[in-house]
Design brief:
With 339 residues, this protein is mainly α. The protein has 16 helices and three strands. Strands 1-2-3 form a three-stranded mixed beta sheet, sandwiched between helices.
Length: 339
């Protein structure tokens, strides 16, 4: 979510303005684009402007055009407000996010880390635990997006001096970096930074490099090889409007089967970072118009998929164990196309 680029290498204000313009061109992606713009504004130091973008998004959340993740927007707004002395409002929003009990781990992590960064360790621990209780429960292999909940909870518990519990042990199991979580989250690490002993400093540099590596790995989103998926209604509308494309899509079941087969073939050949990206007829027609081509031209289809993936709309394939299939059936992937 947050751009990981040093301020000396990018004009964050200009990048925010570019993303706002792009959001105007692609209103269906406005939520994701404006959240990125707000992150750039925060990095530029213009936190009030970032709050105005969060408010703009929240004001657009209506029954006819709901936000995909309003709790995430509220969590980011609260975190930002607290950074420029709007603590009371931030606390009220954080309480609201916790009461809403979102099913996405990101809002939980953001509000818990906001509490943690302001030395509200007990409240941060409660928040991480509430999120884990809701989203992790007793899963032996929780989905990857929930891992930051367990890592954050582990970190706060180390600072509070609490004994390890089952979720701390699970976090240790999920953590794959060379330096253990106990070392990364050791409160005494802060003290070593003030040491005059070169050995202490070298050890701390090694730990920080490992932590930075994990952070960069989490942020890294290599450009995916994305297969274009038309939901059933969209595919019917597409082939009705452009009958020549029926040769590409004989039936909806064939369409789904061909996507899964192509992805498996790419995976077996060693191609990394595969994904699936959903298409819609209106956005495809707009893309064709921008290319000065006819939507009936089948050579546009892979270009359209690439453009959607570049806008961050691809979902990772294969899905995490226990999560819904990419086809939209709401069945677990392992019982659907992963069977």
């Amino acid at each position: 979510m947050r751009p990981d680029t040093p301020a000396e290498n990018v004009d964050h204000a200009a990048e925010a303005a570019r993303l706002e313009r792009t959001a105007g061109l692609y209103p269906e992606d406005a939520e994701a684009l404006l959240l990125r713009a707000a992150a750039h504004l925060e990095l530029s130091g213009d936190r009030p402007a970032a709050t105005r973008l969060y408010d703009r998004l929240l004001s657009s959340d209506t029954p006819s055009a709901p936000l995909d993740n309003p709790c995430l927007v509220r969590a980011l707004k609260a975190s930002n407000l607290w950074e420029y002395d709007h603590e009371a409002e931030a606390r009220a929003i954080i309480d609201g996010v916790r009461m809403a009990a979102p099913r996405d781990p990101a809002p939980w992590v953001i509000v818990a880390e906001a509490l943690e960064s302001h030395d509200e360790l007990e409240a941060a621990h409660e928040t991480f635990t509430e999120g884990a209780r809701l989203l992790v429960a007793d899963a032996a292999r929780p989905p990857q997006p929930t891992h930051p909940l367990l890592y954050g909870r582990h970190r706060v518990r180390r600072m509070l001096g609490l004994e390890h519990d089952e979720w701390d042990a699970l976090a240790d199991t999920l953590h794959s970096m060379p330096v253990s979580l106990d070392e990364l989250h050791d409160p005494k690490r802060v003290w070593s930074l003030g040491s005059d002993d070169p050995a202490d400093l070298e050890a701390e540099i090694s730990r920080l490099r490992a932590e930075l590596g994990a952070y960069r790995q989490a942020l890294s989103r290599p450009f995916p090889v994305a297969m274009l998926h038309w939901p059933a209604g969209e595919l019917a509308e597409l082939t009705e409007a452009y009958p020549s494309l029926s040769a590409e899509y004989p039936s909806y079941d064939d369409h789904l089967a061909s996507i899964e087969a192509a992805l498996r073939e790419l995976a077996s050949s060693g191609t990394p970072n595969l994904g699936v990206v959903p298409g819609t007829v209106p956005s495809y027609e707009a893309f064709a118009a921008s290319e000065g081509a006819s939507p009936a031209d089948p050579t546009l289809l892979p270009q359209y998929a690439t453009t959607l993936a570049a806008r961050g709309l691809a979902v990772t394939w294969p899905p995490q164990p226990g999560t819904a299939c990419w086809c939209g059936s709401q069945q677990p992937y392992g019982e659907c196309h992963g069977a």
